[in-house]
Amino acid sequence: MAYNEKTRGMYSDILSGLKSAGLFKQERYIHSAQAADIEVEFPAGAAIKKVINICANNYLGMSSHPEVVKAAHAGLDSHGYGMSSVRFICGTQDIHRTLEQMVTKFLGTEDTILFPSCMDANAGVFEAVLTKDDVMISDRLVHASIIDGIRLCSAMHDTFKHSDMEHLEEKLQLHNDKRLKMVITDGVFSMDGDTAKLDMMAELCEKYDALLFVDESHSSGFIGKTGRGTHEQCGVMGKIDIITTTFGKGLGGASGGCVSGRKELVEMCRQKARPYLFSNTIAPPVVAGVIKVLEILSASTDRRDKLEKNTEFWRKGLIEAGLIIKAGDTPIVPVMLFNAKLAQDVSRDLYDEGIYAIGFFFPVVPQGQARIRTQISAGHEIHHLEKALEAFRKVGKKHDILGKTKQEIIERYGM
Amino acid sequence: MQEIIKNYVTKEYVEDDTELTYDTPLISGGIVDSFSMVSLKRFLENKYSISIPDDKATPEAFDSVNKICVLVREYVK
Predict the structure, then answer these.
(1) A157:B38 CB<8 A
(2) CA angle, corner A126, sides to A124 and A128, nearest 5?
């Protein structure tokens, strides 16, 4: 069918519908490197504004770390720009295998396979290791990429209520007749910033002979005493069968992801995972950058320690200001506003005050749970956080939400 | 049967104070997502000692307590 006026009109109507429903996403152009201080053009064509970024996944401030940039330059010089091939034809360099071995050591697993992204790792892993005789039992709040991976897999799928261990146990009993059972969770949940009960999950998996899968994208590099992840924090290193994670957040912020875990399962991915088989892997300069990130994080815990202190300061500051935040101890700190329009208005006013933070609302989060998701970084200095808190106090006062309960905010602004 | 199924669906899927009726739309109403239908199917099969073919376990057939009862009765001997 030609792309005629009727077809164009159909898509225009869909896009207009998104706009009128307030669901239309707009990019903001950043004219600087990713960091705590950035230069933003928003809306398109507006004058460039210097703002403090508190919504990046740049947890460890590695995105523009000079040593990482230098290593990426060196990788570009020594190994070139691209591979023009998938891994198993002629797309594997020595540094790809080096990085896989370093990740294995860092996460305390048996083996690792790189993917172009963690989205691809999650899309490919379930189909590669499970069949229709198996069952996947996932937390109801797992990341969208896991849901996509589950959809691509022929195994039966069931869910358990978010972090509800009693419900998980019921599901493990219900599906006890299956050949393999795999329990699937995020390590740190990206929207609420809460942490999976991996110790209890590992215990249940042992009791019911199930495999345990954890996506550590929002944990790798900084959760746990040495930043290995949620499995370190929960004392279950070596007990997780499959970990997926990204190099696009704490571990450098560029791109790429991996599956790490039991060596046979990793090998199954190497033989069968379609995003690995049919796509180029991570580009050489990025591989060289991630290798440097892991060297830095393995040599010292300074950056994750600084992130922990920054997070404590930030959480305490928001509570003292009278704002409602989701409880927890991770650098993902949602400031709850409940009403979608209020979240958008607060985001806009914060931007006017020089603070870049985005409002999230339905369908990204459940109806009535609109929020500003703030994310703290080791790249922030206390003066950044103080300025951001001052902006939150000013904007909070303008909208009369400081010291107010959830009920009071909802009564005034609606859900 | 209606009450047993309604109670199961409430316990399993309702996470707020929503009151279900026998005709509340479950799938199209967003209470039960299509992924979670599998546990409902397994519950029914275990509870009533039946086997529901996959091609009969459609979102339409599971869309209310009353519709589920119609489906289950087809297979109860």
Answers:
(1) yes
(2) 70
Query: Cβ contacts (< 8 Å) between A147 and chain B: which residues?
Result: 35
Q: What is the pLDDT of residue B48?
A: 93
Chain B CB within 8 Å of residue A410 CB? no
CB contact under 8 A, B39 and A150: no
Using CB atoms, pick whichever of A147, A159, A174 lies closest to residue B36.
A159
Which residues fall within 8 angstroms of residue A153, CB to CB, at 6 or more apart?
A126, A127, A130, A136
The predicted-structure confidence for A295-351, as pLDDT tens digits, reads as follows: 999 999 999 999 999 999 999 999 999 999 999 999 999 999 999 999 999 999 999
* Neighboring chain B residues of A174 at a CB cutoff of 8 Å: 39, 42-43, 46
Contact A303, A252 (CB under 8 A): no
| CB distance B64 to B24 below 8 Å | yes
Full pLDDT tens readout for chain B, 77 residues: 999 999 999 988 887 777 889 999 998 888 888 777 888 898 899 899 999 998 888 889 999 999 999 999 999 87
Q: Which chain A residue lies closest to B54 (C-alpha atoms)?
A: A156
**CB neighbours of residue B10 within 10 Å:** 15
Helices (H), A36-162: 66-79, 87-90, 94-107, 118-129, 144-151
User: Residue A1: its pLDDT value, please?
Assistant: 65
CB A288 within 8 A of CB A72: yes
What residues of A are annotated to the active site?
A: 190, 218, 249
Instruction: Give the number of beta-carbon pairs within 8 Å between A and B.
Output: 22
pLDDT tens-digit readout, A191-225: 999 999 999 999 999 999 999 999 999 999 999 99
Residues 151-180 of A with CB under 8 A from B: 156-159, 161, 171, 174-175
Q: How far from chain centre, in Å, is Cα A219?
A: 8
What pTM, to 2 d.p., does this model score? Answer: 0.93
According to DSSP, the residues that pair with A335 across neighbouring strands are A325, A372
Cα distance between residue A84 and residue A91, in whole Å: 7
Q: Is B43 on the interface with A (CB under 8 A)?
A: yes
Using CA coordinates, name the residue in chain B closest to A150.
B35
